[in-house]
Design a protein that fits this description.
The complex is a heterodimer of chains A (about 260) and B (about 375). Chain A is about 40% helix and about 25% strand. With about 260 residues, chain A is an alpha/beta fold. In chain A, the strands form two sheets. Chain A has a six-stranded mixed sheet with strand order 6-7-8-3-9-10, sandwiched between helices. Chain A has a four-stranded antiparallel sheet with strand order 2-1-4-5, with helices on one face. In chain A, helix 3 packs across helix 4 and helix 4 packs across helix 5 (about 150-160). Chain B has a four-stranded mixed sheet with strand order 1-2-3-4. Helices cover about 70% and strands about 10% of the residues of chain B. Classes of the chains: A alpha/beta (about 260), B alpha/beta (about 375).
């Protein structure tokens, strides 16, 4: 795998990463670069460590060895204050939304703003309402509790919270899983639109083949504890590696490709 | 363009007014906006039509766009007509996105929080009454399930029963031993001070034994079990409720009552009397230890007097209450578990309610027992 020649351009650089749970090694000598303004998807079979890699990059999981640079700063063994400052600069959308169940959607979106800025209350409410609207939710959703929302609305509310601080970098863990095709398509479009207008870098874990074809710039394929393919979707699906072939050559993979080709 | 540059390189967002020229400068980002907050009101705007020049805006994000649009809206409120000019195309696009999304979502303000005291009182009374009725219904359901089980005992879940007996009973022994021993020591110490004063040291046997066997050991044990086991019942069922495991059981055709409630109810009814006997023994032993150390009543004297003053009826009266306590704890714990809705905070709230209610009901039931037993002349 060719690594980017210009490290200054990379928002995320992972080198020689090793993560393990007890005796189980998840990643070994894993390396990946993600450039500014890219939408990168991490794919791979179940248990290939996609979410684990994401969690290592956002400092929720301490790797056993290796180095991870986020915005050019080493985060393996980073101090608390430096980590706090970095956390302001990325947003994360968790698989199940992870909205705080005792707070309304508006309050959920306001939490990072209250924690990281000194803006007056009224302004925070305004910003939270804007993020809720940006995520494509109707205004009355702001007053609802997470348990009163449907699955698709929950994802959008979680996206609104991830966008609260206008991060330069957005992590999405299975953003379209469990959404109906229309909502999933709208979600992809929304992410692309935000990337265009905000210059966002987006890293997502997804199994959604339509998302892979329509919304990503490059796709990293995880297998055998490392990245075994990292290329735009069109090239990646031509790769020879048996794991990659098995993943994309199924009936669903072929159908998604045909549809993507027709659309172009 | 970086949406949010490193904190060290933030240029704060400013609006500069020089004669007819109004310019927006700096980073109109979340970091840059914090510095702006108070500013627009302090600006002396020229009258009439305004041209707000945006060519010097270095970076803009959605928060900055919101802020800029608010400034424009405020100016229009005060009778200016405002035009944003010379924006970079990508900034223009972002402003359009924000404008369009806000317009399509509309505005719904947060609901007013304040309620009248009378309304609050009414709501409280209403919800408490509803809960009391629901709890009675739950007790009834449990009774029906128990009846069904009596007709077809083959379907009983023995593994669940024994598992519950182990966690609620065996694992509780150390803490109950420690606390009831200390209780025996404390009661003997407090009573012994008075008895010594009258030279009636030997009566420590009646004092410790009767207090412990009839009242304190059953009560202490029930309170420990309510805090330890009742709360875990609520938390377990509550979490299963959130993760839809309870619904999954129903779908598979296992009544949650059969699997989750009855084994707990029966296990606790078996375990609590046993734990109370254990607490009886340990607490009287605690009294004995103190009697020997402080009151010169030897183990021999104590044990010699014990069977003559403590009738089996005292022991049985104490133990006889505990199955009722057990039923209260198990039913309240399970009922509160099934009341959990939504998320994590609900589990916490209902666990607290479960412990408070079961301890309250246990003490209330104990008082009721005293009145009834006194009424039928069993008190002595």
């Amino acid at each position: 795998m060719a690594l980017s020649a210009n490290p200054a351009d990379a928002v995320i650089t992972v080198r020689d990463l090793r993560t393990e749970f007890g005796a189980t090694v998840i990643h070994e000598n894993l390396g990946i670069d993600i450039r500014r303004g890219e939408i990168v998807a991490l794919v791979g079979g179940s248990g290939s460590g996609k979410t684990t890699l994401l969690r290592a990059i956002i400092m929720l999981l301490r790797p056993a060895a290796g180095s991870i640079h986020l915005f050019g700063q080493e985060i393996v063994g980073i101090g608390e204050t430096a980590a706090f400052r970095l956390r302001r600069r990325f947003g994360m959308l968790f698989q199940q939304g992870a909205l705080f169940s005792s707070l309304t959607v508006r309050e959920n979106v306001a939490v990072p703003l209250r924690e990281h800025t000194r803006l007056p209350r009224q302004r925070i409410v305004e910003i939270a309402d804007l993020k809720i609207a940006l995520a494509g939710l109707p205004a009355d959703a702001g007053n609802k509790l997470p348990r009163e929302l449907s699955g698709g609305m929950l994802k959008r509310a979680a996206l609104a919270r991830a966008l609260a601080l206008d991060p330069a970098l957005l992590f999405l863990d299975e953003p379209t899983a469990g959404l109906d095709p229309v909502s999933a398509g709208a979600f992809d479009e929304l992410v692309a639109q935000l990337k265009e207008s905000l210059g966002l870098t987006v890293v997502m874990v997804t199994h959604d083949l339509d998302t892979l074809w329509s919304a990503t710039d490059r796709v990293a394929f995880l297998g055998e504890r490392r990245v075994i393919g990292y290329a735009p979707m069109r090239e990646l699906t031509q790769a020879e590696h048996p794991l990659i072939r098995a993943y994309f050559e199924g009936p669903r993979g072929r159908a998604a490709r045909e549809q993507a080709c027709r659309a172009k | 363009m970086a949406a949010s540059p490193a904190p060290s390189t933030v240029h704060r967002a400013v609006i500069r007014v020089e004669g007819e020229q109004c310019r927006c400068e700096g980073d109109w980002t979340l970091a840059g906006i914090e510095a702006l907050e108070a500013q627009p009101r302090a600006v002396r705007w020229p009258a009439g039509e305004l041209r707000l020049d945006g060519s010097d805006i270095q970076a803009i994000d959605t928060t900055g766009a919101l802020c800029l649009l608010t400034v424009v809206a405020d100016l229009e409120q005060t009778g200016h007509s405002v035009r944003l000019v010379n924006l970079r195309p990508e900034h223009e696009a972002l402003l359009d996105l924000v404008r369009e999304r806000r317009a399509s979502a509309g505005v719904v303000p947060p609901p007013p929080m304040a309620r009248g005291a009378l309304e609050l009182l009414g709501r409280r009374v209403g919800s408490h009454t509803r809960h009391a009725i629901e709890f009675l219904a739950f007790v009834g359901e449990a009774a029906i399930a128990l009846g069904r089980l009596a007709l077809r005992p083959g379907r009983f879940r023995w593994r669940a029963l024994f598992g519950n007996i182990e966690t609620a009973g065996v694992h509780a022994l150390p803490i109950i031993a420690l606390l009831s021993f200390m209780m025996g020591v404390v009661i003997a110490y407090q009573g012994g001070q008075q008895l010594k004063f009258y030279g009636a040291n030997i009566f420590i046997v009646e004092l410790v034994s009767l207090t412990m066997l009839r009242e304190l050991a059953p009560l202490i044990t029930a309170i420990i079990v309510a805090g330890r086991t009742g709360s875990s019942y609520t938390a377990q069922i509550g979490t299963m409720q959130i993760t839809e495991e309870v619904d999954a059981l129903r779908t598979i055709g296992i009544p949650p009552m059969d699997l989750l409630v009855l084994p707990k109810l029966l296990a606790l009814t078996v375990v609590l009397p046993l734990l109370t006997m254990f607490a009886d023994a340990v607490s009287v032993f605690g009294g004995m230890v103190l009697a020997q150390a402080m009151l010169d009543v030897s183990f021999h004297d104590f044990l010699d007097r014990f069977p003559r003053v403590v009738t089996p009826i005292s022991f049985l009266l104490g133990i006889g209450k505990t199955p009722v306590f057990a039923a209260i704890i198990a039913l309240v714990g399970c009922y509160q578990g099934f009341q959990v809705r939504g998320g994590a905070d609900s589990v916490g709230r209902h666990t607290t309610v479960s412990v408070v209610q079961s301890i309250f009901l246990v003490i209330a039931a104990d008082a009721l027992f005293s009145i009834i037993l006194g009424g039928i002349g069993l008190w002595r």
